[in-house]
Design a protein that fits this description.
This protein is about 85% helix and about 0% strand. The chain is mainly α. The protein has one domain. It starts with a helix and ends with a helix.
């Protein structure tokens, strides 16, 4: 039992630093994306708009998957910060690309059309799964 407790004691500070680093990158990605969207997604979610809730939920999941992959092959805190930041920037680029392919989606989300929002969400989640596997090698 002693080696397990020693391992926990020595590894716990690193765990906290990794989690804080990833959390900051994750929140920054959420903030940037909500600023890039032409509609006020969080306000729509607060108003009960199901399409916006589906879309925002897919954003949360999609940003977290590549960040989790960065933790799989971590070498150092700086490595996680660099790869985490790069993965979020790449994910945001892929999101914009997806939004350009599915034109008119912001208006459809505002009108609370859940079906197209769900299809858009599935493409974003699928892209993030592929990105996560590419990062984790």
């Amino acid at each position: 039992m002693q080696p397990a407790l020693e391992s926990l004691a020595s590894g716990f500070p690193y765990l906290i630093f990794y989690l804080l680093t990833i959390t900051v990158i994750f929140i920054a990605g959420l903030f940037i994306y909500t600023k890039l969207t032409p509609h006020k997604e969080l306000e729509l979610v607060q108003a009960g708009n199901m399409a916006a809730a589906i879309h925002f939920s897919s954003l949360v999941i999609s940003l977290s998957l590549p960040l989790a992959a960065c933790l799989v092959n971590k070498f150092s805190l700086i490595d996680v910060a660099v790869w985490g930041t790069f993965s979020v920037l790449l994910q945001l680029f892929l999101f914009r690309l997806t939004d350009m392919i599915f034109r008119g989606m912001p208006e459809r989300i505002i009108r609370d059309e859940a079906a197209p929002a769900l299809v858009l969400a599935s493409f974003k989640v699928a892209g993030s799964i592929i990105l996560a596997f590419a990062i984790s090698g």
